[in-house]
Amino acid sequence: xxxxxxxxxxxxxxxxxxxxxxxxxxxxxxxxxxxxxxxxxxxxxxxxxxxxxxxxxxxxxxxxxxxxxxxxxxxxxxxxxxxxxxxxxxxxxxxxxxxxxxxxxxxxxxxxxxxxxxxxxxxxxxxxxxxxxxxxxxxxxxxxxxxxxxxxxxxxxxxxxxxxxxxxxxxxxxxxxxxxxxxxx
Length: 185
Known about the structure:
- This protein is an alpha+beta fold.
- 58% of the residues lie in helices and 20% in strands.
- It has helices at 2-55, 61-87, 92-105, 136-147, and strands at 109-115, 125-134, 153-162, 167-176.
- A hairpin with a 4-residue loop joins strand 3 (153-162) and strand 4.
- The protein starts with a helix and ends in a 9-residue tail after the last strand.
- 10% of the residues are buried.
């Protein structure tokens, strides 16, 4: 019986060695690749759970963010209404002063500021041609500051000539005055 088993093992030794080597290689791969990857996945999952907990409604971060967005929009609406209320006097000089202050904030140097004569403007709109020397960034800040004042300034034409360090800009801006409410007697 032992001889029979010995001959069987002798005939199958190649298959037994091949299977043993495959099992050994699989165990080595499991130890080198799969176990560290599983550990890193579990740590990433734990960190993800911590971050989800921080952002969840339990910690009220979402509610606080929504409140901040609402407060910001209310502040912008109030600022715009205040700007309109101060300019509803129909005073062109106050609007031009606002235009000049926005230009100074944006580091704009006016070369000329002339009223436009050939324009077909509405009765409550006063077109002004602005010529200035500035940089692209300052011009962008200036235009953005004008756009933040709804229904006060309308940029109708914009011409830009570039030089080495500065740009020459010619812009037609219409200053729109709010109509005065008529007194009811």
